[in-house]
Amino acid sequence: MNVNVAPSSSINSPATFPVNRRSSVAGLLNPLLLRCRKTKVSVFSSSLDRKIRATRRILAAAALEMKEAEKKTSSPVRIVSIVGEDSVSPLNSAPWLDVMLHTAERLKWVDEEFEMIVFSDNFINSQDETVNRVRNELDRADILVLVAVSKEGSVNWIQTNSQNVPNTICFDSSSALRNKLGGILIETEKRGDIFSSLLPFSQSKKMNESVEIVRTVSEAWERHNADDIRFCLLVIINSYITPVSTLQNLRAKGFSTLNCMVTNCGPQILNCLLDPNCRKALQCLNQCSPVDQVCNYRCIASYESQYLEEFSLCVLQKNNCLELDAKIPEKPYVPPMTEFRGEILSSEIAEDLFVGWLGTLNWSWRVVAGQNPAYDQFPCQYQLYYRGKARGSFWYEPVFQVRTLEDNLVWRRRKYRVKRGKVPGTFQFSVLDNGVVSIESWTIVDVSDDLSWGLFHYHGAARVAGQSYTGAVLVSPDGQYPAEREKERLVSALDRCGIKEWELFNVDNCSCEGPPLGLPEGSSLHSKIEVQEGRTHASV
């Protein structure tokens, strides 16, 4: 951005000064200083020169300070993770070392400057330079993450060499290890575990913030999935090191939010507060961390109602009172499949693959397993894809169960508009979900020739709710896992999504009586592929 300074008696032509964090003040003051120099009042010249020189020194010092601050802000976030040798995670019994190495890769999807180096704690017995390397990495680390570290030798070495790391978080580790956030020790009844009960402490503002962060991190870690492990680290980075774009503070922004809500949405607010279900939803959401999508969406799915939809539609979607603007994640890039049964994939065939078994069965697909802990974990997920009555229209309706926070089992159904992407096998989905519009990019990663299974990847955002996300669903006609002979192809498809098989968690398909299925009148199904139970073939 440029600022044009108008001509004056001492400046013959307009001067343009670039404005940025380092030069805006100095740039705007330069014309004034130049004009002062040309003032022919000699009695003040000596005093004026001193003031000019002093001003220059102040500006130079400020510019240098801001330059150093910029360097600090733009430097990489450095994380060191030390994992207990041969320790096993609760993520389908994957080794903790594999889990943390994969987490390091996924941190790069959020920001290329987030660097995590992972070591097994057996390095202390090595005869090479590994010990010195770990020590050097700790000297410049912003965060130390300890997972399942319990050997006495490892604990002693870490205690000696990690004292200068400002943030240390311990999971399932020795009680001798201590947690530290923002340079302050977080005392717990059981050391070595960040989510043990906190001991009494001084109720300073900084400590209260740390307690809230500990609570958020502990709840996420205990859900035992890859997304939430990464989320734990992002919360620490966002709170103590540098802002994370995907973790904007979603709480109300004081008077501006309140004024927006009262001015535009008075009736909707009143109706929500008077309705028991809507009121419970707001109370539930208030207990969640604003950046915890799992907690937030469970509240919404548990207590959804017409009044909650009207409240969200007015406050968020129509008026954006929280002033949020979440973006669809660009990473990972997932390429679509390019052929089906030897034919080049067209958009028509891709749509038919979505339609899947509908017509032969009462649904297109059933979800076997999912990767996203907020949106893929619901029981009894049915997918309905179909062509609409209007020419060129295509729709997706997921039907799924929700076990509410009051332990009731209820059915939910959504309706997405689907548009073709530029590349066959890619699509844009849009849905109004409880008053908030979500836009998602979906990719057909792979579908077996006999339609015995498929893998669909998505990344999306609810812009005005400040939520962005990625995920993938493994589907089959009966909700059962693909046969062992398909394992190699399935693992390859997951790799193209940046997903490990141990990240998936199986959907509970045991008690699925009475799903509210059925299609709108005038719907149509396949256009290129004919599907018969037990076999499929292309009609072109």
From TrEMBL:
Protein name: Violaxanthin de-epoxidase, chloroplastic-like
Species name: Nicotiana tabacum
Superkingdom in the source lineage: Eukaryota
InterPro entries, sorted: Calycin, VDE, VDE_dom
Annotated GO MF terms: oxidoreductase activity; violaxanthin de-epoxidase activity
Coiled coil start-end: none
GO biological process, one term: xanthophyll cycle
Pfam families noted in UniProt: VDE
PANTHER family noted in UniProt: OS01G0716400 PROTEIN (PTHR33970:SF2), VIOLAXANTHIN DE-EPOXIDASE, CHLOROPLASTIC-RELATED (PTHR33970)
Location of the VDE lipocalin domain: 259-509
